[in-house]
Design brief:
The protein is α/β, with parallel strands linked by helices. The chain contains 16 helices and 13 strands. The N and C termini lie close together (9 Å).
Length: 371
């Protein structure tokens, strides 16, 4: 069977959760499946190399249509069909919802990560809202023959909010790269990361895009209410309304203790998380929430939200709080910073729980949908 995988989302240089998922699950799928033939499709004027993918039963297909023109043509003309670009009409795998036009006979496998663009549009720019309306995730999900949801929460939301049949949705939880995210990391590597970023001694860490959905404003206010010498380190690319976060940092009475690092490469992320005393992630909405799993895997205790998919990911292995309640966030941080018995308990539970998540399992679920 011939399977096309749409790689267009991997053109960005700065990966967020969706791009990292796509990279990992495709890599493990190609390692798992030696029977089917794969065509990895991408579009762009410049030739791009995907050195992370290793396979013997496939090839790349590049088109050089300007992306904006291609997307508009997909949306408003229904042309060209993606099969005309790839010469394959058997199976199309979309690792995330995107603009596409396909023939009715082609089997569509869709991965759905995060429904916040539909359910919480106010958390996005007008440009992003328009983009997601054009994609029309509910319509794309109804067209899909099979859907991989990245959490049980995402599956239930697809069923309850959009009327998608539960029979065609399988849950494939995200995984951990155990070669990189591990408890026993090189002391030399950790020392190097500390020096490269000029990190403070003890610190609370947040990693993620600076945008309203990540709830950084409440995290900063909760930190200001803490009686602690530990710093607050914020890492991640600048997203929508990032200026509001930067203004909060600049005007904070604890300005000298708040450090913004900018975007952090995947190479440095495990060590940075390991060096933190607490990993704080009080997000308002997540389809899965991979960073909390990564923190548990390296032995850093986690504070996160008690909403959407996050309780499903952490179980009883992290402190969960109401993300809208600043006092709860402050109290949770205080416990993890100062109560050594509680810290050790969550570290042990987190390490154990993180071992249950791996990309091979995710790839196996995805592979079962292709047949």
């Amino acid at each position: 069977m011939n399977i096309t995988i749409d790689l267009r989302s991997l053109h960005t240089k700065e990966f967020s959760g969706v791009e990292y998922f796509s990279e990992q699950v495709i890599q493990h799928l190609l390692q798992l499946d030696k029977q089917n033939q794969y065509l990895l499709f991408y579009n762009g004027y410049k030739k791009k190399t995907f050195d992370q993918f290793h396979f013997v039963n496939g090839k790349y297909k590049q088109t050089r249509i300007p992306n904006r023109l291609l997307n508009l043509s997909f949306k408003f003309l229904g042309w060209p069909k993606i099969e005309n670009l790839t010469n394959n009409n058997h199976v199309l795998l979309l690792p995330n919802p995107t603009m596409v036009s396909i023939h009715s006979v082609t089997k569509l496998i869709l991965v759905v990560h995060d429904l916040s663009p539909v359910l919480m549009p106010e958390m996005y720019t007008l440009k992003s809202q328009l983009w997601h309306k054009m994609i029309n995730i509910p319509k794309l999900a109804k067209r899909a023959n099979r859907i991989l949801a990245v959490s049980e929460y995402t599956k239930q939301t697809l069923v309850s909010e959009f009327g998608i049949s539960p029979e065609k949705i399988s849950v494939g939880l995200l995984g951990i790269d155990s070669n990189r995210y591990r408890y026993n990391q090189s002391i030399g590597n950790l020392r190097n990361i500390r020096n490269v970023y000029g990190l403070p001694g003890e610190f609370i860490l947040f990693i993620g895009t600076l945008e309203p959905r990540k709830n950084l404003s409440r995290l900063i206010k909760a930190y200001e209410a803490l009686d602690t010498e530990a710093s607050l380190v914020i890492a991640g690319k600048k997203g929508w309304r990032y200026a509001e976060v930067m203004q909060l940092i600049e005007s904070s009475p604890k300005r000298k203790q708040i450090v913004y690092l900018g975007y952090i490469s995947e190479e440095h992320k495990p060590g940075l998380i390991k060096l933190a005393k607490v990993f704080a992630w009080p997000s308002l909405y997540e389809g899965f929430g991979l960073p909390v799993l990564e923190a548990m895997a390296v032995g850093t205790p986690v504070l996160t939200s008690n909403v959407t998919s996050l309780p499903e990911v952490v179980g009883d292995s992290a402190i969960t709080v109401n993300p809208y309640n600043i006092t709860e966030i402050t109290q949770g941080l205080n416990v993890l910073l100062n109560d050594s018995a509680v810290r050790e308990n969550y570290i042990a539970k987190g390490l154990e729980r993180s071992q249950k998540f791996n990309w091979d399992k995710t790839a196996q679920v995805l592979h079962s949908l292709l047949a």
